[in-house]
Amino acid sequence: MVASTGRYTILLAVLLLVACAPWQPSPDSPRKSPPKTEQRVVQTPPTWYRVERGDTLYSIAFRYGLDWREVARWNSIGSPYTIRPGQELRMTQPPSQSGQSESEEEATSSPPSESESRQRPAEPAPTPERPEPTESRADPPPSNPSPAPSASGNTRSVSGVAWQWPTDGRLARSFDPADTRKGIGVAGDAGQDVFAAAAGQVVYSGTALIGYGELIIIKHSDNLLSAYGHNRRRLVGEGDRVQRGQKIAEMGQDDRQENMLHFEIRLDGEPVNPLDYLPRR
User: What is the separation, in whole angstroms, between the first and last Cα of the chain?
Assistant: First the structure.
């Protein structure tokens, strides 16, 4: 009886040890890998870019986060900054060369040949100081005001430009510096009005930039651009001059099938937080 009790005790101890030991998968059991995180890929400017139909100097610079003035200078392109399909553009600063003065570079008024443009040095672009945003009252109406004002008349003056919200609706997506497309998302209804956030000239209107859908880019000054993506319909074309609050498009859907306007502001080619420019709500 004692021997039997001892055997039961040993068996119980063995069972307890097995139960407490950590579980180990068998060699044949498949191991589950941790979920993969989404990788956002930002386009790196190539050394050379071949112009395609529908491209503009501004849209190419916008695509790669470059200052359009630098791209123009690197390729000796002057006003009105016309490019043609098949043309090759340098997308990085060319190596500097000694023996050529700044006055010699400025003396060239017409674009050089393709071989000359590849060898021509470029002056580094000056880095302007970023002014602090300041609140202001609505600016006086232009001499030829647009008959299509937005629902909100609030404005904010930043960098000498009067800004307003580009459409009505709630702020659905905030500015994220780590995003591939750095801007904000304003949710609304399909087809609702999209307005020019500030006065300027349309420098791109098309669908060539992947991830933006029907896109409009407006130039407000030499160093400030605004972009309006995911439109259902574009109402302005390249070269059109628009007034602040003028209807330029109708809201469409983003890549998530949500009624959304993607809005960006670029300063010297770099995306900045639009909330630092738009009036507070």
Answer: 87
| Helix ranges, the chain (H) | 2-20, 57-63, 68-74, 102-106, 114-119
Q: 68-124 pLDDT, tens per residue?
A: 889 989 998 988 888 888 889 988 988 873 334 444 444 443 444 444 444 444 444
CATH number of 156-276: 2.70.70.10
CATH no. for 43-92+116-121: 3.10.350.10
Secondary structure class of 247 (helix, strand, coil) = strand
pTM of the complete model: 0.63
For 116, list phi and psi in degrees, rounded to 5: -70, -40
Residue 147: both structure tokens together: 């008959």
Q: Where are the domains of the chain?
A: 43-92+116-121, 156-276
Give the pair of three-digit tokens for residue 229: 């993506």
Phi, psi of 251 (to 5 degrees): -65, 140
Tell me whether the CATH fold assigned to 43-92+116-121 matches the one assigned to 156-276. Answer: no
Q: How far apart are CA 247 and CA 256, in angstroms?
A: 25
